[in-house]
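Known limitations

Files may contain more than one protein. Parsers should not assume a single record per file. Below, a two-record file is shown to illustrate correct handling: read the sequence, read the token line, then continue until end of file.
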Amino acid sequence: MERQKAIELLQKIKGEDLRKLANKYDVTVFKDGKKNKGWAGHTIEHYLGLPINSSQSPNFGSWELKTISLKYLRNNTLAIKETMAITMIDPYNVKNTPFEDSHLLSKLKKILMVSRIWVDQTEPSSLLYGIHTFDLGNEELYNQIKADYDTVRNTITNKGFDKLTGKMGVYIQPRTKGAGHGSISRAFYARAPFLKSIVVL
């Protein structure tokens, strides 16, 4: 499916409640009291007719589908709720792969991002807020993301995988990903300043 076709399909459900769509497509939101953190993305993938994808290749071959959450602050303005996971960090792969050939770059080259309104932890509803596109063509942005990647790569090479910290990176940070605080898995995450360049609120 071409990205433009996906945009047209998503425009048709803009403003709709993704919880209702999740029920329609039998997407599990809660099971045994635990939330499926990816339920909104899975719902959108079902709507677009795409099998759930967790590979390091872009969802649709040439472009990547991402979902992010927005929340209302006390002053009733919208803000980005949290950072966004991009792709897992395989230490061997990152250590031996320059940015130009990396999974990170392939994920960021061409993005279709869907933003949704987060209400609270119980997810009573979640309106599809907007559809946003991003192409990594800005030279300054490209160079900074490359620098962030190289920081991670150099740290793995010279200090070790366990020395990665979420304090690294201007736009892209390496953070733990997985169940519990004892998780040793790490992924590349997009920081809020980067997300704000895509999602104009």
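...continuing to the second record:
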Amino acid sequence: MPDLMKDAQPFKFYTRLHLTELTGLRASNLSQLLKLIKKVPGSCIYHHTHRFLQQHQYLSPEPPNDFAYWVSEILGEAALGEELASIDTIRFNTIRALREEIIETIEYYIKNNFFARLKFSSEGEEFHFMKSVSFISPTKYIAYNLSDFAEILKKVTIDSIYFHIFEARLRLEKPANDFSCWIETSLGIKELAGRIANLDPYTYTLDDLRQVLINVIENYVRNKN
């Protein structure tokens, strides 16, 4: 059976320490915000669109991204805020593509709402750009088969799950999350790999996502034995 294979490449679990750094860049109106979104590093875009998943892992669905919140609550442009909040993050395989969607949304709004560009935030309420800095380190856990894998998923931290599901696909620009890639390429189980790849991780808390992954894998092993 596939889950009993010991000669397959094992899966090594990693985790990450996440730090937030101020860039010193700030915007007080939409034009400035747009200009900076175009030039800041991808780690800034990642931070302002994904930090809620890390800081509020017990909330589902996650709150809107920072750009949506700022233009709605600080500049009072609720229509644009709704458009930014409705951007379907899961559609984007790279931060670069997500950045372009945000840019296009703001550019179109400014073009069709002349007076919006004239609104400035109050002093002290500017949008401050921050970036995510991750330090990756190996854990002690290594899985040789699906049974091992499911048991280890019960033990690793949610930081490890976050790294292998979210960061691997977006920041490292991999075709799928690490779990699906390993199950397909090392174990040769395309059906299960596809099932995991097709999960929408943005609709779960990280603890719920852990349990969903465990259930999917354990059910597969049980049905194959």
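Parsers that stop after the first record will miss the second one. For reference, the second record is described as follows. The two ends are 8 Å apart (CA to CA).
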